[in-house]
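Students often ask why we bother predicting the structure of a whole assembly rather than each chain alone. The short answer is interfaces. A chain on its own may look different once its partners are present, and contacts between molecules only exist in the joint model. In this exercise we take two input lines together and write out one structure for the complete complex. Read the inputs first and try to guess which parts will touch.
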Amino acid sequence: MIGCDCHVCHSPDPRDNRLRSSIYVETPECSFVVDTGTDFRTQALRENIRNVDAVVFTHSHTDHVMGFDDLRRFGAARGYMPVYASAETMRDLERVYEFAFKALNPFPGYLKPEPHIIEGPFALGQTTLTPLPVPHGDSKVNGYLFTRDGRKLLAYLSDCSGVPDEITKLIVDVDTLVIDALREKPHPTHLSVGEALEVAARIRSSQTFFTHVCHELPQSAEAALPLNTHIAYDGLKLDF
Amino acid sequence: MIGCDCHVCHSPDPRDNRLRSSIYVETPECSFVVDTGTDFRTQALRENIRNVDAVVFTHSHTDHVMGFDDLRRFGAARGYMPVYASAETMRDLERVYEFAFKALNPFPGYLKPEPHIIEGPFALGQTTLTPLPVPHGDSKVNGYLFTRDGRKLLAYLSDCSGVPDEITKLIVDVDTLVIDALREKPHPTHLSVGEALEVAARIRSSQTFFTHVCHELPQSAEAALPLNTHIAYDGLKLDF
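Now the answer. The structure tokens for the assembled complex follow.
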């Protein structure tokens, strides 16, 4: 954190050096990102990402959308970039990135979004994404369940302060759960470690990764977590 | 640049590794930034910046404003963050960062901007900033002249496609000119190296630094530039 002298912000463990949360998904058919936070360019350079066929948004908070314009590098060949978001999030994206959505810039190579409002499960290649609307304080955020060939591979819940029973039912027994766990201490808009563990137990995921972790939770805290429960870190790669 | 295999993008010279353009100004009375681009958090962490008393904007393109929310770390103590911008840029900031300007978020520690519309020279501590409106393609961008004790210390023109005579007159004989020089080849919204050199010759600056440089202009190109003309790099520090 800017201007912070705590031991996590000055940790020698590179995994304690964290950028904004997002995921990049590669499938045999296509590749896509979930969220383009402020660090998107830095992350794309670090991982040498060469292809983004679509972007899916969880919500419109700054740490999830402010790198959107850097998608221009990936939309240029096709001429447009498919954007998947809830109606509310799309409205915010259209307001913030007015120049892109209104195609105000005539220069070639600029980002031209192709909006897709999410109203239920949708497919990107042969992956089905099921939106998982969850509370994030007073707002609503889309998590996503990723299914292929009928297998529940991944549930991604980056920002939530709770997981309602109807969402738990959709993702019960998922292979991998990636879930918000900001810190040990409760927070009004994010799950704490204890709350995230309680959700994971209900979901009975085979493995669980904490994301959106703040500097109050060092990577070393993983040692005290249950078996198959981990703290995710920047650059972590998972195979399915 | 994302997904680029050119020799500058893979240069062993760390100065060829460039984030978005901005400057941080420290004076005996106060400290401020000009622009908070998408990389602002990364830059603030790298330079261990502990104090930002105000932010001044040149214009509202994404590479100059998308790190704005990360100023929250600096406004918390005072309770608000003074924001200086032209009326047009402020309108864009208010649209993009609606939640901050409308104080929609009640949590402590969130960014609370205090807008100051720039209509002429203004003071930050004992530094006078004179706006220098210059064309940037079809739009208008504010450069700034920084004066202390009547001395013209610095003219900062980060984004311009030309420098009109009336602006040249304001900054002639400035100590240090920092000026847009995207690359050798002409560009519709940025000065080329040749155009920037021609402007610098008219201004008769004691020293000149090129900024907003793209991957078509390596740091090594500095060797071919006139005496006292340099290519700026990330982390460059100048004393006045």
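Check your guess against this: The domain at 121-235 of chain A is CATH 3.60.15.10 (Metallo-beta-lactamase; Chain A).
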